[in-house]
Design goal:
- By secondary structure, this protein is α/β, with parallel strands linked by helices.
- 38% of the residues lie in helices and 19% in strands.
- It contains 19 helices and 24 strands.
- The strands form five sheets. A six-stranded parallel β-sheet has the order 3-2-1-4-5-6, sandwiched between helices.
- Strand 18 and strand 19 form a beta hairpin.
- The longest helix is centred in the middle third of the chain and has 33 residues.
- It starts with a strand and ends in a 12-residue tail after the last helix.
Length: 629
């Protein structure tokens, strides 16, 4: 395996491939003097190197030195040129991951690598999703023509991933009610909900299935504070029914199938303001009062003259706009009504002018940033509109969650998205006094600190907690040791408040590693500080799945079959409904599978697996200690 990158994701990915999947890894990174990155990259590199040393030591102690005879290599290069890729052994490699922070660098290197090795499995990190789809199709077609294999053979496959898209569901879900995590699976939205231990006499609702048993005690810092959690007090992933039934005093993580709480904001209508935003409340009341006056004058004219209601309304409007004949020959009542109509018409002119000016001003500022409205409460305050913050903002708006963004750079990547979605934005440094107050932090539901600077996120969280001690906070922290210390301190200081620390590279690395192993990783959810992967695989070629029933294929603590893709909702000749949603190719995902269903080689299943279980499913030998870090 060859990994090329310039930040912490490359080192985490290399450690993931080497420590979990026992692969030979060649890491290509920029020279030390050219790494203009956060200081955490150095610490991440040291952590990955320590993990590799621990793995090699464990293997040598176990007498498996033959499996680790070839040590990993690390090359230093400014750019992944053709010569650099050749030195890294791309011609003989099984897979290549290009995880540079720049999309253009990854695309250029991918085109070169595809020419050097048409059968190479490529994994690209691209932020531009639409461009990524085109690049994936182009590289797959090029590989199919060069190798002569079919498009679906798997030889020379290309997978385009985004660390922002991988981490955004977990970050957004943490800010919602409870501690649920969200994963999208072929158009279906799944939520992993943390449930409290059931009371005596109660029966826990498993949802679609029980994914994990949480730590033995909710106040136990092991696992939930930034460490992985180990031993009997750590989380137990993918337990069987007997373990769930025997567990006492332990919460569970249940999988649920949910839909969006609100309709997505259509892009074509995002710039059109609603009627309530088009005119102010005072102007709307003025228009309503004038309309009531016109109705009253028409009724009065109908009573005085005995005219038909339609004719009386017509005459009143003529008097209102001063285009009727003077009523000097009519009776006194008609004359008084005409004078009143003319007076109301004079009042109508400035109101109409104000309406036109307000409408023009609203349309003129429709593309500008909005300020948080008065009385806003129960919203999510999002700090940072970089690539991670932008993806999280989109997720929150898709779920119809009110958001207020805080960004210091007016030219940030996500400012255009905020304008399009008409999300209020506060421009300013979050560490300055008054910025969080402008975002209505004292009435917010939660705070998402997603800037690229750890100290800025920590300072914002500490200040927000001083304003509202029980505010739910989610921090994006790069360094695991720092995240552990921050979590423990905040939880000790505010035991009744919810605090979560999330690392984007920690959430994204398993998905990239799984893609390099040739499997489609649909998403990942954190369980305390461990990770569960959701993968869609073909049953053919897996003796642990093929020819076995769903119940027999379940391996507690390793993997579990969750759903089966069937054509047009037909399972074994019988139509099933209500268990999935329509896919892009007219297929359905059936989630409530009977344990007696026999998996066939042509089936495509969705399964949940630990990283160690996925490695075993792929037929790789796994280190017993440290393999699920």
């Amino acid at each position: 395996m060859v990994v090329c990158g310039d930040d912490g994701l490359a080192h985490r990915l290399a450690a993931e491939l080497r420590g979990v999947y026992r692969e030979q890894v060649t890491l290509v990174v920029p020279p030390s003097g050219r790494r203009v990155r956060q200081p955490v990259v150095g610490r991440a590199r040291a952590a990955s190197a320590a993990l590799l040393d621990m793995v090699n030591a464990a293997v040598n102690r176990a007498g498996n030195g033959d499996a680790a005879a070839d040590a990993d290599r690390e090359l230093e290069a400014t750019e992944p040129t053709e010569n650099v890729l050749a030195d890294a052994g791309v011609e003989r490699a099984t897979a290549l991951a290009l995880v540079y922070d720049d999309d253009e660098t990854n695309i250029r290197a991918a085109l070169t690598a595809r020419r050097l090795n048409p059968r190479l499995r490529l994994v690209l990190r691209l932020y531009n999703r639409r461009l990524g789809q085109h690049i994936e199709e182009l590289l797959d077609q090029s590989a199919a023509l060069a190798t002569g294999d079919g498009p679906g053979s798997g030889s020379g496959s290309t997978t385009v991933l985004s660390d922002a898209d991988t981490a955004a569901p977990a970050l957004a879900a943490t800010a919602l009610v409870g501690t649920s995590k969200i994963v999208e699976t072929d158009g279906i939205l799944l939520r992993a909900v943390e449930r409290q231990p059931p009371r005596p006499g109660e029966v826990a609702d498993p949802g679609l299935c029980t994914l994990a048993l949480l730590s033995a005690t909710s106040n136990d810092p092991a696992g939930a504070d930034g460490s992985e959690g180990s031993g009997e007090h750590g989380p137990q992933l993918l337990p069987d029914a007997a373990a769930v039934e025997a567990a006492t005093g332990r919460g569970t993580v249940a999988l649920e199938q949910v839909s969006y709480s609100g309709p997505p904001l259509a892009a074509g209508r995002a710039g059109v303001p609603a009627f309530g935003e088009l005119f102010s409340r005072r102007l709307r009341w003025s228009l309503a009062g004038l309309a009531a006056c016109v109705v009253a004058l028409a009724v009065a004219l109908m009573v005085v003259t005995g005219d038909h209601p339609v004719h009386a309304t017509y005459v009143t409007l003529l008097d209102l706009f001063a285009i009727n004949e003077p009523a000097h020959n009519d009776d006194r009542g008609r004359q008084i009504l005409q004078l009143l109509s003319g007076f109301v018409g004079l009042l109508l002119l400035p109101v109409l002018l104000a309406a036109v000016l307000e409408a023009l001003g609203t349309f003129r500022t429709a593309s500008s940033l909005r300020k948080p409205p008065r009385g806003l409460g129960g919203h999510v305050v999002l700090l940072g509109l970089g690539k991670i913050g932008t993806r999280v903002l989109t997720r929150l708006r898709e779920m119809d969650i009110p958001v207020v963004c805080v960004e210091a750079d007016p030219e940030a990547r996500g400012m255009a998205t905020a304008r399009r979605l008409r999300v209020p934005v506060v421009l300013g440094d979050v560490t300055q006094e008054g910025v969080l107050e402008a975002a209505k932090i004292h009435r917010a539901h939660s705070l998402l600190a997603l800037t690229s600077v750890d100290t800025t996120n920590l300072e914002a969280v500490l200040y927000a907690r001083s304003v509202r001690s029980r505010l739910r906070v989610v921090l994006r922290l790069y360094d695991d040791d720092f995240a552990t210390a921050v979590y423990r301190t905040l939880r000790a200081a505010h035991p009744r408040a919810l605090t979560r620390s999330r690392s984007v590279t920690h959430l994204a690395a398993p998905s990239f590693a799984g893609a390099m192993m040739g499997r489609q990783i649909l998403g990942a959810i954190p369980v305390e500080r461990r990770v569960l992967l959701f993968a869609a695989v073909r049953v053919a070629g897996h003796p642990q799945l093929e020819g076995k029933t769903v119940g027999e294929a379940f391996r507690p603590g390793a993997w579990r079959v969750l759903a089966l893709e069937v054509s047009d909702g037909v399972l074994d000749g019988e139509r099933v409904g209500g268990a999935g949603s329509e896919g892009a190719r007219g297929s359905r995902l059936v989630w409530e599978l009977p344990d007696t269903y026999v998996l066939r080689g042509s089936d495509r299943v969705v399964l949940a697996a630990t990283r160690r279980g996925l490695a075993e499913l792929l037929g790789r030998r796994v280190v017993r200690r440290g393999a699920d870090l």
